[in-house]
Amino acid sequence: RLLIIDFGSQVTQLIARRLRELGVYCEIHPFQNVDDAFLDAFAPRAVIFSGGPASVLDEGSPRPPARVFDMGVPILGICYGQQVMMQMLGGRVERGEGTAEFGRAFVQPKEPLDILEGWFDTDREQVWMSHGDHVAEIAPGFRVYATSPGAPFAITADTERHFYAVQFHPEVHHTPRGARLYENFVRMAGFTGDWTMASYREEAVQRIREQVGDAKVICALSGGVDSSVAAALIHEAVGDQLTCVFVDHGLLRLNEAEEVVGMFRDHMNLSVIHAEEQELFLGELEGVSDPETKRKIIGRLFIDVFQKYADQIEGARFLAQGTLYPDVIESVSFSGGPSVTIKSHHNVGGLPEKMGLKLVEPLRELFKDEVRALGVELGLPRHFIGRHPFPGPGLAIRCPGEITREKLDILRKADAVYIDQIRRHGLYDDIWQAFVAILPVRTVGVMGDGRTYDYACALRAVTSVDGMTADYYPFSHDFLGETATRIINEVKGINRVTYDITSKPPGTIEWE
Ligand code: XMP
């Protein structure tokens, strides 16, 4: 496996993505955690130093342990990683007054180099630079293989020891042949690219068995991709030692509870408790219209309910969670400072300590699309795996103002028509998330010869990569017109349809 030492670059995760795409298993670890003992235990076959915001000229700036250079394994240093490598090996780095370089740059070859195979079909190659300081003198043993106008040492290497240092970021999209550089690097390091989902599945099953032994495991199944895949994987590992609890808070979509519970029980043979607690949740939410209060009530009740059902499962010692890799990577923060709570997210974070349970998190090493691939491996239906994300507080946050059963019923029907439209037009997979919000206003309309006074609703559809930023989806006017007509005709209680064209930021994806 390959070790990525993280010095705090914004794009470190992309390095891992590129490598996984090449069938190479790698892990990112923050530099603070990497000491001699760690290196020995990890025994990497190759190491990559990420970029980072610090300056190697500052006192106490982050470094890898010197031992990494004595392990006899190939090392690739990127940006800050390049500078730290140069400095530790006897080169010199200078402050970047006037020589900082950000954005597109072009490097020119000087000599052929193994990791640059496939580069330089023309006499220059586009790369993405982002550096303040620069290398002023390369370390003994290194030679220059490519230069750029702002970086005379854009690509240097010590080919004897297989140390490579690049000033730019090969992992980003704007370095078009960056993936090729990584591919050359890992092949040279001896990786064959045989890391697949099937092998991950086998390893993960072994690890779960070792961790859990013959103890019982409980899992809060939400029907979302992450908890579903985690449950399926753990079930494969320990069978009936796993019990899932599906909390039905009455804020689910049309037929959702039946579909999820049915699929896991009948199709996947899991033991699932369907906790029908609609009355409890909807009762406590009655008359509440403040978004944060709604979220807090739902979060608190969820934990209570889950605990109540979990307590009935005798001998449960583990709680399964579908934590993903992006949630795990400890970010290397240099600025610190509190961030503002926009919305309090709903999760079972505090549960394990409260209940004295240990965590099983079999997806901790995976990215979202890898989790989907694993789900397919495990036999979950593709349409299920490809579903849009659905928030923990459910329809509550798509129903601004007071939540009533009547509004929820109308919302469920409208949402089902909208999603059906999207699927019929073949747009579902192009959209990150789509849903209807029912608005707390009634408007006047005319249907047939009569007056109507019904709810207005808003359609939402966004494109996004990670939910952090988003843009509205550019439906055609025909699509929007047809969908509005269908909703108004098919859903009693709605007489007006609007389309939400707010991006995030400044909007959020959900309405509350
Ligand atoms: P916002 O509305 O913050 O949503 O732009 C970003 C993404 O997160 C989902 N979301 C949640 N997911 N618990 C969840 O599990 C929550 O409390 C929650 N709130 C929002 C939202 O659906 C979108 O995908």
From TrEMBL:
Gene3D superfamilies: 3.30.300.10, 3.40.50.880, HUPs. It holds the Pfam family GATase. ATP binds at S222, G223, G224, V225, D226, S227, S228. GO terms for cellular component: cytosol. Keywords: ATP-binding, Glutamine amidotransferase, GMP biosynthesis, Ligase, Nucleotide-binding, Purine biosynthesis. InterPro entries: Class_I_gatase-like, GATASE, GMP_synth_C, GMP_synth_GATase, GMP_synthase, GMPS_ATP_PPase_dom, Rossmann-like_a/b/a_fold. It catalyses: XMP + L-glutamine + ATP + H2O = GMP + L-glutamate + AMP + diphosphate + 2 H(+). GO terms for molecular function: ATP binding; GMP synthase activity. The active site is at C79, H169, E171. SUPFAM superfamilies: Adenine nucleotide alpha hydrolases-like (SSF52402), Class I glutamine amidotransferase-like (SSF52317), GMP synthetase C-terminal dimerisation domain (SSF54810). Pathway: Purine metabolism; GMP biosynthesis; GMP from XMP (L-Gln route): step 1/1. PANTHER family: GMP SYNTHASE [GLUTAMINE-HYDROLYZING] (PTHR11922:SF2), GMP SYNTHASE-RELATED (PTHR11922). This is GMP synthase [glutamine-hydrolyzing]. It comes from Kangsaoukella pontilimi. The gene is guaA.
